[in-house]
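**User:** My hope is that you can spare some time for a protein that puzzles me. I have put the entry right below:
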Amino acid sequence: MIIAGIDEAGYGPLIGPLIVGCCAFETDGDHTADELPCIWKSLRKLVSRKRCQKGRRLHVNDSKLVYSPSAGLKELERSILCIAGSVLRDSTTHTSTPPFPKTLDDLISLVASHCVDEMRRRKWYEAPVDEAYPLVCDTMSLRLFSNGLRAECARVNTHCVHLSARVLFEKPLNDLLDQTRNKASVLFSTAAMHLDELIRRFSDRGLVIFCDRQGGREHYGSLLRLMFEDWSLEITCEKDGHSEYRLSKQTRIVRILFREKAEAQCLPVAAASMLSKYLRESFMRRLNHFWRNHLPQLQPTAGYYNDGLRFLQDIQSKRAELGISDAEIIRSR
């Protein structure tokens, strides 16, 4: 069966991209059973919900628990790059030749190739000539741990088969917000791209998809009916932060669950959360590097509202000089 997760980073900020990540693992089990296999338990030898002081396990959990400005990027980067290096590129034959990313652009091309052209049109997201990669971790230790994770996945027959992200930079995000006037709708439509891909690729293999709640929404039945009109839809549950649906077509059955704090309940959701956060933090590092090249005394920003306003005020004159419009760098909501 396939257990997949979808989660986002950057829903609230004023500056920087909104990113929706997706991760899927294949494992043994019955996708129609009430109690699904726990990927944390299957991979407990090398993966943990908790931070491991000696570094013997990857820390995989809600990105807010793995990363903080004070703790730094190391654990987030280590976990994401090791998982990325263990993905099965051909999950039907269980063969893998994962291209371990040599640069951040390599990782972006691997998990979010759709955004490469958009990224290159925004000079503040281009790679600095002196950008080291990995950003903070040691390459050799990452490669060794990734090889070990791949071997452990094979031993317990639990494989990461999909890792991807949808990246919405400020201007494309503003364009969608202008069309919908609703940020929650933009978030759902972006997550829906992952739903569509997962169902196209894995619906014949016992697919279960966990999603964190989308912008506070509780009811998704009508949206799923519009998306998958050639599937039969059963609403299993819609209450108390837990909504569940069942799509069926011929012999294929797909379960879709929306839950509060899903990243604490399902490892693929946690990995999707971490991928989204890692990419967003990486883009913000580049954005800050770009502006500090022009204004060396500038204090960096994470892009959240109050500090984002301060940052925009600090770069206002230089931004006008460079001809960068509001819509290219400031999110409208």
